Amino acid sequence: MMIENKIDAIATRLRSLGRVVIGFSGGIDSTLVLKLAVDALGPENVWAVTGDSESLLPEELEQCRALGRQIGILQANFMEIRTNELSDPKYRANPIDRCFYCKHELFSRLQEIARQVGASSVLDGSNADDKRDWRPGRRAAGELGVVSPLAEASITKAEIRNLAKILGLPNWNKPALACLSSRIPYGSEVTVEKLNQVAEAERFLRSLGFTQLRVRHHDKIARIELLKDEMPRLNEAGLTERIVSRLKEFGFTYITIDLQGYRSGSMNEGLTKDQDK
């Protein structure tokens, strides 16, 4: 199906819903859903709700606010809620379906808001590519009846970025940012201290000009994933020494570079076929 036909299908789907609440993370997927919903339904019929927690970078929240204003969401229809996933011992234990508990809380809160404002549905930004990876949060979405317009229309990540660029969305090429808990290996407890270490380390690396990256938290070891074409920068005079010194200040003892480079969901690579069903 041509991308134009997919967009027409989404617009028709959105109009059938009438009034919606969107889980808005500020990533390109949910940003596109928000833009398409505002265009199809009018800003008075769209609520954007951002969940704030220890697993979200503070600067991401401000970017959500700015994006909402640019897209035209009404100030009264932009909401921030504090989620408390770390109060759930099942989430803190970091099982392989950790995302289920986080998303279940978030979508349950969004459903409450939808009832309060008279919205028919809660929407998220899941896309066709998400079906190819281990995404336990999708189970929570299915159980709670969350609508995923991009996935329904079989729109891929590449198509999302292309369309967002055409529509003039400022974050069309924004690097993907999963929640900070995804940097911690399954079975290792999620704590505020670990999340802060990861946040500070990734913020520092971005300040050096690295773009798409992850700092995986293996207790005392920081495993850094960088784009392969950015790895040669590590040969710049004094750069590795700066990185090692700063990340040790954040509490890591050993600083390593993953030679496979950045890839989404690398913590899932150790899952067996039986586990990821």
Q: Which features would summarize this protein structure in a list?
A:
10 helices, 277 residues, alpha/beta, single chain, four-stranded parallel β-sheet, Rossmann fold, globular, 7 strands, 2 domains, Alpha-Beta Plaits
Strand content: 5-15%
Order of helices and strands: HEHEHEHHEHHHHEEHE
The biggest sheet amounts to:
4 strands, parallel
Q: Give the class-level CATH name of the largest domain.
A: Alpha Beta
Mean of residue pLDDT values: 93
Strand order of the largest sheet: 3-2-1-4
Tell me the total number of β-strands.
7
Helix content: 40-55%
User: Looking at the structure, what is the overall shape?
Assistant: globular
Question: How many angstroms does the end-to-end distance come to?
Answer: 29 Å
* Count of structural domains: 2
- The CATH superfamily label of the largest domain reads HUPs
Number of discrete helical segments: 10
